[in-house]
Amino acid sequence: MLDTLILATNQLSGTVPPGIYNMSTLQIIELQFNNLTGPIPNNNQSFSLPMLQLFCLSSNNYVGQIPSGLASCQYLQEIYLPYNSFADVVPIWLAQLARLTVLSLGANHIIGYIPAVISNLTRLTTLAICFSNLTGEVPKELGLMRELSYLHLGNNLLTGPIPLSLGNLSKLSFLTLTDNLLFGSVPGTLGNKNSLKLQFNHLNGNLDFLMPLSNCGPV
C-alpha cells in the first residue's frame, strides 16, 4: 500500500482523486508547486489519513477551508499550506496535534484571531501565518511554546503591543511581525535574535532593546 506520495514541482493541474485522502497507509503527501485546484474533503468520512506525518500542498490553487480531517491525524508533524486560496480562520482543532513541529498557513485568506490554544503545540518550531488578514493581538500565550525558533506573522492586521512573553522563547531566532498595526515599545528581551523584522508598524519608545548587541564582539 502507498505510504509516500511526492509529486512536487511539476505542472500538474486539476483535482486530486478523492480516494487519496482516504488512504490508511499514507504518511507523506507532497504536492507543492503545481496548479492543483479544488476544495479538499472536509469531514472525517471523506478525509481519513491516520498515519499521516507530513502534509505539503504549498503554492497551488486550493480553495475552501483547511481540511478538518487533519484533526484526527495524530502522527502529523508538519503542515505546509501557504500560497493557496484557502479561506478560513486559524482552526482551534490544530491544538490537538500534539506532535506538530511545523505549521505554515501564510498567503491564504486567513481571517480572525490567533487562538490562544495554539500554544498547546509545545513541540512547534515553526509558526508562519503571514500575508493574510489576521486581526486582534498577538497572544501572550505564544510565549509558552519553548521550542519555537521561527515566528512569522507579518503582513496582517494585528494590533496591540508585542507580548513581553515572546522574550521567554530562548530558541526563537527569527521573528517577523512586519506590516501590522502593532504599537508600544519593543520588549527589551527581543534584541538578541538572529533576525528581527518589525518595520511598518506603529511602534515607539527607544532602542534599549538593542543593548544586548553591545555585548557582541566584532565579526
Structural overview:
The protein has 219 residues and is mainly beta. The chain is built from no helices and 18 strands. It has strands at 4-6, 13-14, 28-30, 35-38, 54-56, 61-64, 78-80, 85-89, 102-104, 109-112, 126-128, 133-134, 150-152, 159-160, 174-176, 181-184, 195-197, 202-203. The strands form three sheets. It has a nine-stranded parallel beta sheet with strand order 1-3-5-7-9-11-13-15-17, with no helix packed on it. Strands 2-4-6-8-10-12 form a six-stranded parallel beta sheet, with no helix packed on it. Strands 14-16-18 form a three-stranded parallel beta sheet, with no helix packed on it. The radius of gyration is 19 Å and the shape is elongated. The termini are far apart. 33% of the residues are buried.
Present the secondary structure layout.
Elements lengths: L3 E3 L6 E2 L13 E3 L4 E4 L15 E3 L4 E4 L13 E3 L4 E5 L12 E3 L4 E4 L13 E3 L4 E2 L15 E3 L6 E2 L13 E3 L4 E4 L10 E3 L4 E2 L16
Parallel strand pairs: 1-3, 2-4, 3-5, 4-6, 5-7, 6-8, 7-9, 8-10, 9-11, 10-12, 11-13, 13-15, 14-16, 15-17, 16-18
